[in-house]
Amino acid sequence: MNPFDKIKAARSSFPEVDLTRGRSIAYSRSTTCRIMELIDGNGQGNVHGGTIMRMVDEAAGVVAMKHSQRPCVTARVDRFDFLAPAYIGNMVSVNCALNYVGRTSMEVGVEVIAEDLITGELRHIASSSIIYVALNEQGKPTPVPPLAPADQEEAERIEQASIRRQHMQKLDEELAQWRAQNLAKKIP
Ligand SMILES: CC(C)(COP(=O)(O)OP(=O)(O)OC[C@H]1O[C@@H](n2cnc3c(N)ncnc32)[C@H](O)[C@@H]1OP(=O)(O)O)[C@@H](O)C(=O)NCCC(=O)NCCS
């Protein structure tokens, strides 16, 4: 079987997921690490931002897939803050955990750490927050299990993400409304 048929066959039917049972943040939390090599560099001799972005998207996608037990697509990179450079030879660790779960979407919070394994120096080099959507066998958005906070701290993390999400949706709506009102006027 060629690889494309193999992928298609594997995506033709998924196991049932109990949507009434919440899953914890710990259940899907993950860390991915890799040593930065020459191929990861940019013109300044540091690590290319795109290398970090790809690692982040892959690592955070794993969290969404583990929580939902479904293939997931990246719907939005809500934030991506580069705080400091990473260097060739550093070990870059991408720590990811769910911030929030909607009906079919999941927001993953990401912290990226660069470590000099010789000196032991640790640097927080980037933060991000990415929204994924779980898909069913037809490639359409599908419901995911709720997120069950383990303690007060996790409940507050979820609540804050929920507020950010509401603001983001409101801003999207306001901008769409503005475009509909203002850009329509320019059409003769
Ligand atoms: C993401 C995608 C599946 C959403 O499809 P859609 O028909 O707009 O889905 P819906 O309107 O039903 O929205 C589904 C969920 O996604 C959320 N969503 C969709 N687009 C979003 C965006 N740009 N930002 C944030 N959330 C988004 C909705 O709020 C909704 O969340 P909820 O179910 O938790 O309330 C579709 O836009 C898509 O396939 N995009 C391309 C994805 C891709 O190729 N990514 C890169 C490679 S992985």
UniProtKB/TrEMBL annotation:
Gene3D superfamilies: Hotdog Thioesterase. This is HotDog ACOT-type domain-containing protein. InterPro entries: Cytosol_ACT, HOTDOG_ACOT, HotDog_dom_sf, Thioestr_dom. The lineage of its organism: Bacteria, Bacillati, Chloroflexota, Ktedonobacteria, Ktedonobacterales. The keyword Cytoplasm does not apply. Belongs to the acyl coenzyme A hydrolase family. Pfam families: 4HBT. One of its GO terms (molecular function) is long-chain fatty acyl-CoA hydrolase activity. Keywords: Hydrolase. Residues 26-138 form the HotDog ACOT-type domain. GO terms for cellular component: cytosol.
